[in-house]
Automatic annotation (TrEMBL):
Keywords: Membrane, Transmembrane, Transmembrane helix
Coiled coil: none
Statement: the UniProt record of this protein carries the keyword Metal-binding: no
Keyword Transport: no
InterPro entries per UniProt: Na+/solute_symporter_sf, Put_Na-Bile_cotransptr
Pfam families found in the cross-reference section: SBF_like
Gene Ontology cellular-component annotations: plasma membrane
Residue stretches spanning the membrane: 39-56, 68-87, 99-119, 131-153, 165-183, 204-224, 230-252, 291-313
Stated name of the protein: Bile acid:sodium symporter
Gene3D superfamilies: 1.20.1530.20
Length: 322
């Protein structure tokens, strides 16, 4: 039976189901603590597998293209945050201050890894550079995202980023990745030849984090605080923000003289925001009462970027062979 075109992909459907489940049957008390521990293990395993899968040869090949990586990092950790701050007056006219902080948090996050590389490959871009750039963005995000959150988001909440938060992020994300790189010489080939292993861990860990986060948010009354009109405005804001960053990364790469393959890499790596990294980071940095508001804009943006970039990659791929 042919899948109807109007249906989203399976992961998007799973996200919607998990949010609905958390809305009806949120985990509480000791059950929530058990889910929390399982989620931490799942996220650590995810980053371990990514470390084991990432080829050192691809990293070395990509590192030689430092101008491209610098542009991607500046787009991810400078241009995005500046847009979030500049658009504040307009955004606060249609969404609540809490949701605006969620948009700001979205702007501080690193790029995706899998989808950035996949779309670059589909569009016939510079894949080795994409591997290096997206991976570097994720590793830099472990340190830069908490710093940016401390500067941009925390002053509005009255809280502050602690060294304990940095420590938790390093232990949960960076350490497993480094251990995976160390273990690559023994298990790297097996992990790379079994992508069906990484995908369930990748998507399963995100679903677990979303379920636990939204369970707590539902207990705290998120759906009483976020009306349907706010969700519609968030969709429009996410679409507009993505369109703006896609245009800016395209224009910037052309003005700086990059070729088409490098332009593709800059556009796809510089315009993405990682759900896989963002949700665990939010879980560490924010209180259980606010985490739902923080990750809601991210989840909407994540789905929109996948759909839009899939179409854009096909258009790039249709260009004549040189």
């Amino acid at each position: 039976m042919t899948r109807p075109r109007f249906l989203p992909d399976n992961f998007t459907l799973a996200l919607l189901i998990v949010i609905a489940l958390a809305s009806v049957l949120p985990c509480r008390g000791e059950t929530a603590q058990v889910f929390d521990h399982v989620t931490n293990v799942g996220v650590a395993l995810l980053f371990f597998l990514h470390g084991a899968k990432l080829s050192r040869d691809a990293v070395i090949a990509g590192l030689t293209h430092w101008r491209l990586h610098l542009v991607v990092l500046l787009c991810t950790f400078a241009l995005f945050p500046v847009l979030g701050l500049v658009l504040k007056p307009a955004l606060l006219t249609v969404i609540t201050p809490d949701l605006y902080l969620g948009v700001l948090f979205l702007c501080t996050l690193p790029s995706t890894v899998q989808s950035s590389i996949a779309f670059t490959s589909m569009a016939r871009g510079n894949v080795p550079a994409a591997v290096c750039s997206a991976s570097a963005s994720n590793m830099a995000g472990i340190f830069l995202t908490p710093m940016l959150v401390g500067l941009m988001v925390m002053p509005h909440t009255g809280a502050a980023i602690s060294f304990d938060s940095f420590g938790k992020i390093v232990l949960q994300l960076l350490l497993p990745f480094v251990l995976g790189q160390i273990a690559r010489r023994w298990i790297g080939g097996w992990v790379s030849s079994h992508p069906q292993l990484v995908r369930p861990v990748d998507q399963g860990s995100i679903l677990l984090v979303v379920y636990t986060a939204f369970s707590q948010a539902v207990v705290e009354g998120i759906w009483q605080q976020v009306p349907l009109s706010a969700l519609i405005y968030l969709l429009l804001i996410s679409s507009g923000l993505l369109a703006l960053i896609l245009v800016l990364t395209t224009v910037l790469s052309r003005r700086l003289g990059f070729n088409k393959e490098d332009e593709i890499t800059i556009v796809f790596c510089g315009s993405k925001k990682s759900l896989a990294s963002g949700v665990p980071i939010a879980k560490v940095l924010f209180t259980s009462q606010t985490i739902g508001m923080m990750v809601l804009p991210l989840m909407l943006f994540h789905q929109i970027q996948l759909m839009v970039c899939a179409v854009l990659a096909q258009r790039y791929a249709a260009r004549p062979q040189q």
